[in-house]
Design brief:
2 helices, five-stranded mixed sheet, globular, alpha+beta, 33% strand
């Protein structure tokens, strides 16, 4: 009797991010320890920087916005994101780090 084929689970990873809001332009600015440093033009008020971060990363990673979610750090500059659809080496390569 043949065993049924199971679909491989889609890749996902967690990414530590240090956000620097109020910057001159949106960009990946290297790393700081294990965290990726990201500069954003958005101010750190009313969740604007969080929204800008999700928008920026979804464009850079070529993923839909629903593929990224904030796990920790809603009001902090240190954040932890869950990224569905890519593994960490691919994420780092697409961010150029």
């Amino acid at each position: 009797m043949a065993t049924p084929k199971t679909a491989a689970a889609p890749a996902s990873c967690r990414l530590e991010v240090k956000v620097i809001p109020g910057a001159a332009r949106d960009e990946v600015a290297g790393t700081m320890g294990n965290a990726v440093k990201i500069k954003l033009r958005a101010p750190p008020v009313e969740g604007r920087a969080n929204e800008a971060l999700i928008e920026f990363l979804s464009a850079r990673l070529d993923l839909p916005r629903r593929g990224l979610s904030l796990v920790r750090g809603d009001t902090s500059r240190q954040k932890l994101l869950r990224i569905d659809g890519l593994d960490l080496p691919v994420v780092r390569a697409r961010l150029g780090i």
